[in-house]
Amino acid sequence: MSDMTPVRRVQRVRHEIHRRELTVTDVQRRDGRFVVVTLQGDSLKSFVSSSFDDHVKLVLPHPDPGASGPLMRDYTPRAFDTQCGELVLEFALHGSGPFSTWAAQAAPGQTLTVAGPRGSMVIPTDYAWHWLVGDDTAWPAIARRLEELPADARVSLWLLMDDAPTLPARRPTSLDLHVLSTPAALLQALRGVSLPEGEGYVWCAGEAQAMTQLRELMLRDKGHPKEALKVAAYWKQGAEGFHARLDEEAPAQAD
After folding, report:
1. Cα 225 to Cα 219: distance, rounded to the nearest angstrom
2. Please, are residues 252 and 230 in contact by the beta-carbon 8 Å criterion?
3. Would you write out the chain's pLDDT as a tens digit for each of its 255 residues?
4. Which of 9, 2, 242 is nearest to 123 (CA)?
5. Which H/E stretch holds residue 141?
6. For residue 67, how far is the Cα from the chain centroid?
7. CA atoms of 228 and 202, how far apart (whole Å)
């Protein structure tokens, strides 16, 4: 556990929201459970995403003609190139929801409406250590973070998966990887280890109940400061379109 005085160093940055009509230019399947979709459009030349766990809102027509509006879900920008006007999204083929279904059949030439992101929680990369915890739905954000961290960053990666995904080629050299197949096994493993010395950051995302338990473990059992913790519920058993932050409070807005 860190013996340093907790300091809130995370900043919230607001962005102007743009709604973009984009075209699929490439689709790749990875590890049997992820689909990587590349989208292109001139409007992406003004695209901004300042943090690895930003979210854009994807919009699909509602299959029910009588519905009041389209279907919308949040997804992480896996990568983007403003010069080329490209945006990469990575989908976990998770369940049988409409967006997993769309990703499973995605093909070049199709179109997709993308809005946002509306803001970013910018987490500095110079912490003494980083813990990243998540399931398949959190993998796109985790993979982006691994690519953006310095090569000498100290990272512990805790994955709630049946087996490990293919790690990004560009990642920190000091990477401690743990793969657990159930929430109970993950919690047991985390209870059995101590947080490293020095100022570190813990980021967790996944199913709501599992993330609530992880948050309590980090704050109460391990005494990790909430100023250096972000926990998000990307989905919830039995619920559609669920997405929530589980932090007690959000960082102050940047000037």
Report:
1. 7
2. no
3. 444 555 679 999 999 999 999 999 999 999 989 999 999 999 999 999 999 999 999 999 988 888 888 999 999 999 999 999 999 999 998 767 899 999 999 999 999 999 999 999 999 999 999 999 999 999 999 999 999 999 999 999 999 999 999 999 999 999 999 999 999 999 999 999 999 999 999 999 999 999 999 999 999 999 999 999 999 999 987 555 545 666 644 333 332
4. 9
5. helix 139-148
6. 29
7. 6
Q: Give the DSSP H/E element, type plus range, for residue 216.
A: helix 208-216
Let me know: does 87 contact 57? Beta carbons within 8 Å: no
In this structure, what token pair is assigned to residue 1? 């556990």
pTM tops 0.70, yes or no: yes
Residue 68 C-alpha from the chain's centroid? 29
Are the C-beta atoms of 214 and 204 separated by less than 8 Å?
Answer: yes
Q: Smallest Cα–Cα separation from 51: which of 145, 150, 153, 133?
A: 145
List the structure tokens of 69.
């509006």
Q: 46 burial class (0-12, 13-18, 19+ CB within 10 angstroms)?
A: exposed
